[in-house]
Amino acid sequence: AGRWNKSLKRASITSIFIFGLAFISVAGTIFQESLPNNIFKSTLVPKSTEVGQATKNYNYIERKELPIYFIQTSTNKTSISSWEAVSSNWNRTTQYESLIQEAVPINSLPLIDKSKKRPAVILHCGPKTGSTTSRMACRYELEKSCGIVPTGILRPHAYTDTERFYQMVRSCNKTHHFCAKSITMPINIPTFDDVYFIHLFPFRNYDDWAESALKQSYDRGGEKECNHVKKLFFQRNCTDSHMEIDFRKYGKTDLSMYKEYIVRRMNEKKENHLILLYYHRELDGTLKFLSETYDIPKLAGSDGNRKGNRPNGTCDKIVLDKFHECF
């Protein structure tokens, strides 16, 4: 448990150095507050009144009170929790249903006055959570709604470029869906007064995600790629891979880092941000629910399965065991 918690902090702080967070000097303090000392220790979900207070208080919101929403697509039921409760209950063995059971049922997601705010759904993509399907759908959506012709690479425009991404969100004012990977939202990005951000982060069980991510290394390069990853973990003191099997790209790590930016912007710029944690196999149903809730077009192509057929075989189990030992 200690290693996993330490890895979350290290991954978050590493990302902050990469993207140049303005308040980097207090990054260590921030992540000590946002992640409990024992990440595997369960905590009680706040009472519904406490959660409700967090959703209404836009004058100032604590990081630990940041509302996290859930959708159970089979029943179209919604629920809400706090970052403090979610982060404490989200461990290596946690399943999506477990988080929903600990959350507080609510009647619906927050309503949006579309005469004043444009709903902008941001799909925060990560490896082994359906990101290939999302990227292709977003490429088509940007071409259709904003005239951005896809380039040769299999990713949407400004997919990993923070500054260009938000320029695109601002200029593509007829577009409701955007895809991004490992971006941030620094305080110096101009305020979005007319946008209601709906951030979608994928949930996948950590052990299941790690196993699939390591298999992708085998799918790409066989034993040669497996040996490369093995060398990173065994001979280079648990060095992060820069492909799929990278702790920094796991959904909880990405959300842990990104929330720092939006909490600050909610407090200082009074922007509207909603975080929705969805089960990674239910993206299409989740987007359908959002389409019906906010009366926006559904993202075409979100029902795809780009990597449904994968070859047999994976890397040696000792590589996966070492990954868990490292992170």
Structure description:
The protein is of the alpha/beta class and 327 residues long. Helices cover 44% and strands 13% of the residues. The protein has a 7-stranded mixed beta sheet. Strand 1 and strand 2 form a beta hairpin. Helix 8 (206-234) packs across helix 11 (317-326). The N and C termini lie close together (9 Å).
What attributes does this structure have?
single chain; 327 residues; alpha/beta; seven-stranded mixed β-sheet; 11 helices; 7 strands
List the topology elements.
Layout: H1 2-19, H2 27-34, H3 48-56, E1 67-72, E2 77-82, H4 83-89, H5 96-102, E3 104-106, E4 118-124, H6 131-146, H7 162-171, E5 177-180, E6 195-203, H8 206-234, H9 251-268, E7 272-279, H10 283-294, H11 317-326
Parallel strand pairs: 1-7, 4-5, 4-6, 6-7
Antiparallel strand pairs: 1-2, 2-3
Distance between the termini: 9 Å
Major sheet: 7 strands, mixed
Q: Please state how the strands of the largest beta sheet are arranged side by side.
A: 3-2-1-7-6-4-5
Mean pLDDT: 85
Show unreliable segments: 13-58
Order of helices and strands: HHHEEHHEEHHEEHHEHH
Question: Can you count the beta strands?
Answer: 7
Structural class: alpha/beta
- Anisotropy-based shape: globular
Task: Summarize this entry quickly.
The protein has 327 residues and is of the alpha/beta class. It has helices spanning 2-19, 27-34, 48-56, 83-89, 96-102, 131-146, 162-171, 206-234, 251-268, 283-294, 317-326; strands spanning 67-72, 77-82, 104-106, 118-124, 177-180, 195-203, 272-279. Helix 1 runs antiparallel to helix 2, helix 1 (2-19) crosses helix 9 (251-268) and helix 8 crosses helix 11 (317-326).
